[in-house]
Amino acid sequence: MYKKYSLLLVTLLVFTGCQSAPKPEPQVAQHQRDHGASAGHRQAFIKDYDRNGDGVVSREEFDQARAAHLRAMDSNQDQRVDETEYVQEFVARMTEEQKEHKTKQLKQAHVRFGVLDRDKNGDLTVQEFALSGARIFAGWDLNQDGVVDAQDPLPTP
């Protein structure tokens, strides 16, 4: 019973603290711009925290997900997360993400091979491989001077 009340108290304290948390400083937004926060990062944020699946993350959903994450990290259920618990959870999550990434990349390798094998005979010839290389280089040598350097404009999406 004490555990129930402790968990309720922690949740209320977290929620109350978050409600009175100051607005993010302008530096936070600048940091996100400077360090690559992108639409992809926002999609990942929404995927991680959108608990009701409506495509929007409310502060309540965010706080609930964070509280659940904290409980999941607390492997010995002592209402605290020590460094070992924190790192173990990170390693487990990282390992899972790497597996998912590897699976996607392997599927993509089969797709790329299918594109490169122009005559669909199951083998890449020197010519087929060279053709893809020429396309790749041309895609980066946008000023067509025969070299790829800082003078080449970045490709447009």
TrEMBL record:
This is EF-hand domain-containing protein. Keywords: Signal. Residues 1-20 form the signal peptide. Residues 37-72 form the EF-hand domain. The lineage of its organism: Bacteria, Pseudomonadati, Pseudomonadota, Gammaproteobacteria, Cellvibrionales. SUPFAM superfamilies: EF-hand (SSF47473). It holds the Pfam family EF-hand_5. It comes from Cellvibrio mixtus. GO terms for molecular function: calcium ion binding. Residues 22-41 are annotated as: Disordered. The keyword Signal applies.
